[in-house]
Amino acid sequence: AGDQGVPGTRRLVKTGGEGEERDDMANVTYDVLWRETMRDLLDMLELDPPQDQDEEEAFQHFSYLYIKYVQIFKNLEDCYDQHVHPQKRIDIKEVLEAVMGRMLEIKEYLVQLSGLKFISFDDILVDLKLIPETLELPVPRYFVDERKKDLDMREKLVATLIAARDADKEVEPEPPEAGFSLEDAIRIIQVNERGRQGKQRAKFMKEIVRQEELERKLREIGQPETDPDQAAVVIQKLFRGFKTLKQARLMREEELVFIGMKEPEQKPRELDPVSRQADIRSRRKIIQAQNKDEYEEALVSIRRKIYDDEGVDMREQMMDKIRQWFVAYREQNEAFPDYPDEEDGGSLFIFDPPPVVEEDEEGGDEKDGKGGKDDKKKDDKGKGKKGEEEAEDEGPQELPISDFVLKMQSCTEKFCQVWQDRDESQNFAQKYDAELIRDALRPGVREEIRMKEVDEVMRNELENLKAAVEKGKKGKKGKKKGKKGKKGKKGKKGKKGPKDLTPDRTMDSLMKELVDKDILQLASNYSVQDFVGQHRNLDMIERKALDPTPPEASLAQIRQAVVEQLVLPLGSQAVHEKAPFVNKALIYGPKGCGKTMLSMAIARETGSNFFNLSARNLDPGAPGSGRIKYPDKKGANSAVMMLHMVFKVAKALAPSVVYMDEVEWTFIADKKKVIERRRSKERRGERRRRRRSRRRGRMIDLTFHQLKSQWPGEKPPSRFLKDFLKEVKFLKEEDRILILGNSRSARCSSPSPLLLA
User: Are 447 and 98 in contact (CB under 8 A)?
Assistant: First the structure.
């Protein structure tokens, strides 16, 4: 990048100390990174519409695209997080969300091609000479940063409600512990003190005896004169031994740190690069907020200035053009036109007329068209089920032109037109560009003037012209009847939404009740990266050569799948609307493997509300304890009311995570199905497989009676199932709500109701 294209390349001077100099260097660094990334994206868009390929070539091609898009996504995320120019950040965010959505689309297509949920790209990574960590997807930091004020306020509100709830609770007195009597305590202290004194006395006497023995030996042999050379040799040996031992300890410490067996020593904050980077990032976040506030103020002031300076000329130009349309229409039709209605856009029809469609000749063409429709219907009927079977056998369909690709193309075009050759040598502080703001606001001001001022004036002027023409006409009495307005077509009735059971209650009161019942909770401060695990590329390459069956997913692949399928669509509204997403998920594994941590990390990193509908949370006490929540079948203290409040708050304060731990209790399988499955397994040698499962440490499915007998609560948790499924059915695609279940014995539950929902 040259001096004109990159701000601050030749103007790096110390104006405000070392901190400002670092910020200026960061401006240059991330501006160059953005330009290089956009050039890479331009190259990728040339390869993205693939040519006709078979499945194997298509898999290789889209795998390459996926890896490259992951690299572009990571670079753009860094640029958006660190850039301080407000208009650049807007453009970077648009292309970042487009790349994110396209990356998820390609991954979904690769899953369809391979038939595997976890795809290994090890061969392609080896060919590209990339490490496995290249595929590590970070969670975009703007999911939380851009809503930080709202999230902090909500967290303080929930924390205050929790504190008020806990303060109202009666503290149960702790049972007195069986302690020692005063005499026993004194006796124990005396015994310990006497033992300590005895040890000290023995150590002291041992030192005295050793000193006396040394003096006796010296008296027997006589004390010779010390040779200086021999003494120097002894001192050198001792010093070299000490130095070598110290060096060996340092080398061992470095080796342990290198192999990850020991944490490195904490450096001073001013010397630690990680701490310095965090300081610079926090300082740049402050600059981002200041520049954004100045940009928003400039939007208002510049819009007003455009209206005052250019509004008169815009108004006159539009009125002249509308008058010309009046005259041209009268010359052609010998009458003045009807002014377009506001609902149809008003005079927008005059300035931007729809394209003219050439009408076909009447008669034979219409018959041909009807015949063509009939032939098409016959062809469709002739295909029947065979066509459907052939379509199923064809495999995954080709990807249509993606909206995200079109968005990326428009973003790259805008980058080339606006930013690529823009001279920013004078904009060293990376403030807003007033000229770009004027260019962006001018069409909006023009549209506002047209709708609010020009249309009203010209509609009155047209009525006056019509009235003047009517007066000039002779022999015509009365007014022509106006055309009857067409009755609007009744829209198709969609699905009825759930009835609002709490129309008179505010959102704060609903949140307070859910917090009091410990359903709305604060998720613990975890991140997806806390789910530690590595890739197993070498292992997978060796297994592919010996066994073609796909191996089990590594922990890094599980972490990557969580970010792709759950975190990214939940955190971004633009990605959620068009990219493939999952709104119901199950995390399955043994106790202590990190299921709950992942669930809370998803809620934390997307800034989501966390609703805990676990069976043990809704019924925490033993039978007869009276601690069950919402025990009634109807009314304000029923499960229907509780679920209605949860989903109402979750939709209003989206994104939200509805969490259900030990989901097998709620989705318990039917008694008959479990018994039939158990009998069929016994016929196939269930006992032998159970023994093998015990050796391997796998989970053993329980029967209906065993599972039911182990429930410690007052009422069976499956009483929520029917009402829960009703609420899930009413979820729409635009609702950013994730139903997340955890289970240690998922096969005991019946997943079909949730899948149908």
Answer: no
Cβ(110)–Cβ(66) below 8 Å: yes
pLDDT in tens, 449-479: 888 888 888 888 888 888 877 776 654 444 4
- 34 HSE (CA, 13 A, CB side): 31
Q: What is the 3-state secondary structure (H, E, C) of 373-419?
A: HHHHHHHHHHHHHHHHHHHHHCCCCCCCCCHHHHHHHHHHHHHHHHH
Q: Tokens 């249509």, residue?
A: 400
Query: Cβ-count burial of 585 within 10 angstroms (0-12 exposed, 13-18 middle, 19+ buried)?
Result: middle
CA dihedral 297, 300, 302, 305 (to 10 degrees): -140
Q: What's the CA angle centered on 651, arms 647 and 652, to 5 degrees?
A: 115
Q: Rounded to the nearest 5°, which phi and psi values hold at 612? A: -100, 105
Report how far apart, in Å, the C-alpha atoms of 78 and of each of 22, 68, 416 are: 17, 16, 21
The C-alpha atoms of residue 237 and residue 243 are separated, in whole angstroms, by: 10
pLDDT of residue 106 exceeding 70 = yes
| Bridging pattern class, strands 656-660 and 609-612 | parallel
Q: For residue 347, what are the contacts with CB-CB under 8 A and spacing of at least 6?
A: 318, 322, 339, 340, 450, 454, 455, 458
Give the containing element (helix H, strand E) for 260: none
Assess contact for 397 and 98: CB atoms under 8 A: no
Distance from C-alpha of 613 to C-alpha of 599, rounded to nearest angstrom? 13
Distance CA 343, CA 149 (A): 39
Instruction: Give the helix, strand, coil percentages of the chain, each rounded to 5.
Output: 65, 5, 35
pLDDT at 351 over 50: yes
Cα-only R_g, the chain: 38
* pTM for this predicted structure: 0.71
- Residues 6+ positions from 319 with CB-CB distance below 8 Å: 454, 457, 458
- Per the CB < 8 A criterion, the answer to whether 518 and 158 are in contact is no
3-state SS, residue 553: coil
Alpha-carbon distance of 270 to 272, in angstroms, equals 6
Q: Which tens digit of pLDDT belongs to each residue from 176-193?
A: 555 668 888 888 888 998
Distance separating alpha carbons of residues 503 and 723, to the nearest angstrom: 19
> Which residue carries 């079977």 as its tokens?
389
659, β-bridge pairs? 612, 740
**DSSP summary character for residue 66:** H
Question: What whole-number percentage of the chain has pLDDT above 90?
Answer: 6
- Cα-based torsion angle of the residue sequence 516, 519, 520, 525 in order, rounded to the nearest 10 degrees: 120
The helix/strand/coil state of 498 is: coil
DSSP per-residue string spanning 626-662: ---SS-BSSSTTBHHHHHHHHHHHHHHT-SEEEEESS
- The dihedrals phi and psi of 401, each to the nearest 5 degrees, come to -65, 120
